[in-house]
C-alpha cells in the first residue's frame, strides 16, 4: 500500500531530477488529526453584488469557526482557502468578476489549499439565463479543480432554491470541503436539497450519542470507517462474516464498540443487527452499508454464480436490511444510511458488469430510500470511492495499478480514511439536508463523472 | 431458590426453579472460543498466552468490554510451561480488558475450564463478584519439554556457584544422557498408561462395541457441522490465524469411513480393540472463555442472561487400585448432584457429556442404565437412568470439535447456555413456557476426576 512513485518525486534526493525531466508531481496530502485548526491560514470570501448577503453569512460562519476571514483579495497574501459565493447569479455574464478575482489568488494558494464554490441548482424551472449561469458553475469548478496543484482541491456546494447559504447542511458541507477530512475529494458538486439537519453540539465529536453499524468492518475501508465513526463519538457495532472474526474483533476493540459476526445476506440480518444495537446500545441511528465483494469477469465469460453473488451482497442485502429497519419503528432518531457505491457504478469498468450493476443499483437505492426517511429527519446517501490504497488494490497488476493511481487530479490513490471521513460527514447531524446524493472520493478521477 | 434480599433489583425466581438457597443467581452471559486446531496445525506457532489472549479479546469485542474492570478472570492450562507463571493475569494484561482486572490460574486436568466456571459462579452467587470470566487454554503443539533431572540439578548448582572452581564442578558431573530432554507425558504417572489405554480397559469392561462408538462419533460430526451451517456458532466462535471452523470437523465423514480406521488403543488386550482415531479425540490446540455475571451487572450493560449456573459436583475414582475406569468419575458425581437438587435424568432437556472418547460417553451411559451398578455402586434401588440420544450433545462435542484440555469446559458451558436460551425462547407462548429448561454437564478428567454441573435457562 505504499506509493513508490510519490516518494520518488517528493524525496529531497530525487525531486529535483523529477522536476527537471517534467514528471507529474503528486503532492503528499495532509489528513485530519483531532485538534487540528480548520484552516492553517486565512480564507478569502468573494462574491458578486447579487450574492453579497449569502457571502456575508458564509463569512460569519467562518469567523465563528475561528477562521481568519478576508473579504477582499490582497496581492501577495497566501490563502488557505477561497470561497466563491455565486448564489445570486442571474446571467452568465455575472460570473466574471468573482471568478476572476478568485483566479488571481490561485498562484499563491497555500499547499493543500481549498477552493469552494457556493451556487444554486440549475433546473428547468428557472429562466434560461439563470439556468445557464448556474450550470456554468459546474463546468468552471470541475475545470478549476484540474488546474490546482500542491494537493489543493476544488469542490462546490449546490443549494436548492429556498435553502439558505447558512443552512446546516450548507455550512456542514463547507466545513467538510475546507477541512483536511476531504483531502481526496476534488471536483465534486454536492447538492443540498433541504434546510434539515442541525449543527453538532461539538464539532470535534459530531457523532456523540449516536449508535452506528458498519458492515464489512473487518478490514480496509470498513475498518477505517469504524475507527473514524468512533473517533467522531459514535458507538460502533462492527459487522462482518464469521470467517473474518479475528480481524473484526480487533477493529471492534480499537473502536471500543462491539463485534457482530453476521453474513449480511442472511434473511434475518436486519433483525439481528437491530436487536443487537437495541439491546446493547439502546438504539440504532446510523447504518453504513460497506460490505461488498468483487467477482470480476468479462460479461461474455460471466458465470451465474459470480453475477448473483455480487448482486446479493452488494445491493440486495442492503435493500433487505433497509426494509427491516424502516418498518421496525426503531430507526427514527434522524437516522442516516450511507452506502458504498463506486466510480465503476457511475462510469463503468471493463470486466465489472456485475460489480457496476450492483454499485449503480446502490445509487438508485439511496435516491429512492432517502424520501422514505425525511419524515424522521433521516437521510440516505452514497459514497463512491475511486482508486483507494487497500489490500485489494495492492493485488492489482503493477501497470494497471499505476495507471489507476495517476488518473486523477491529485495524481495519487486515496486512503481508506479518506472514504471514512466522507462517510462520517454524511452520517453527521449537520448533513440532514443532503439526501439521496452520491459523493465521489476519487481525487477527481478522470472517469466516472 | 430463596427470596432475593433486594426484591426490586432481582428478577423473581421462576416457579419450579432448582438450586440451593442462595441470595442471588450467577448467569452465563455468553462465551467466545477459538476454532480448535489439530496439534501441529495452524496454531503450532502460538503459545498458550497467544491463544488465551485471543479468546479473551474476542469475548471483549463480542460484549463491548474494552477497558472494563471484570471482577475476576479464572483460567488455566493443562500443558503448562514454567514461564506460564501467572498465565491468566498476563493474558488479561495483553487483552483489551482493564488492567485492573485481577486473575488467577487453576488446573484440574480436563475439568479446568468447568471448574473455573463453578468457582466464579459461586463467588458471584455469594456477592463477592459482579462479573467474572472463566476460561481455559491448551496448546498440544507448544507443549512444554522439560530437561532431565541431571541437567536441571547441574544448572541449579551452576547458578549458585560463585567461583570458577565451583562452576566447573557444577558442570563436571554432567553425563551425555542428561542432555536428552524429558519427553512430555500425558500418561498417568501412577499407572504409566496413557488415557487411551486406560479408556480401552473401561471400554472392554463395559463391552462397548466399535459400531456404537463410530455411530456416536458420526453423530458428533454431523451435528457440529449442521450447527455451524445454521450459524449457531456465529456468536460463540471467533476465527484465529486463518482458521474459522474446528479443524477436526469432518462434515463428510460416514460410518463406512469410520469403520475403515485401524484401532489405536487397546491392541494388547484380550478383547478386540475398538477405539480408533475416529472415535477418540485427537490432541488439539485452542482456548475458550465464558462471561459470567450477576443479573444486575448483565442488565446494566444490556447483556443477555442465557442460563443460570445452578449447582455443581466434583468427583474422583480410585482408578489405581479400584475397578473403576480412569474417566468414570462423573458416573458417581452426577447421581449425587441430581439427588441434591431433587432431579432425575429425565428432567434435563439437554445433556452434554464430554467426548474424551466415544466409549467414555457410552460407558457412562451404560453404567447409569445398569441396575446392578445402580444398586451396588450408586446405592440406588436400581438403574440410575438413561439419556435420550436426541438430548445428548445436540450440537456435537469433543469428538468433532477437538479437545484442547482446559478449553473444553468453556466450550461446553457457552454452547449449552445458548441452546437453553434458544429452547426457552422457542417455548414462549406455549403451555410449556414456565417449565424450567435444564442442561446437565459432565466432564471427565485425568487423575480419575470429573466435574459436573447443572445449568438452567435464565
TrEMBL record, chain A:
It comes from the Bacteria. Belongs to the short-chain dehydrogenases/reductases (SDR) family. This is 3-oxoacyl-ACP reductase. Residues 210-386 form the Ketoreductase domain. Pfam families: adh_short_C2. InterPro entries: KR_dom (IPR057326), NAD(P)-bd_dom_sf (IPR036291), Sc_DH/Rdtase_CS (IPR020904), SDR_fam (IPR002347). One of its GO terms (molecular function) is oxidoreductase activity, acting on the CH-OH group of donors, NAD or NADP as acceptor. PANTHER family: 3-OXOACYL-[ACYL-CARRIER-PROTEIN] REDUCTASE [NADH], SHORT-CHAIN DEHYDROGENASES/REDUCTASES FAMILY MEMBER. It comes from Pengzhenrongella sicca.
From TrEMBL, chain B:
Its EC number is 2.3.1.9. The keyword Cytoplasm does not apply. One of its GO terms (cellular component) is cytosol. Residues 324-456 form the Thiolase C-terminal domain. SUPFAM superfamilies: Thiolase-like. Residues 27-295 form the Thiolase N-terminal domain. Belongs to the thiolase-like superfamily. Thiolase family. This is Acetyl-CoA C-acetyltransferase.
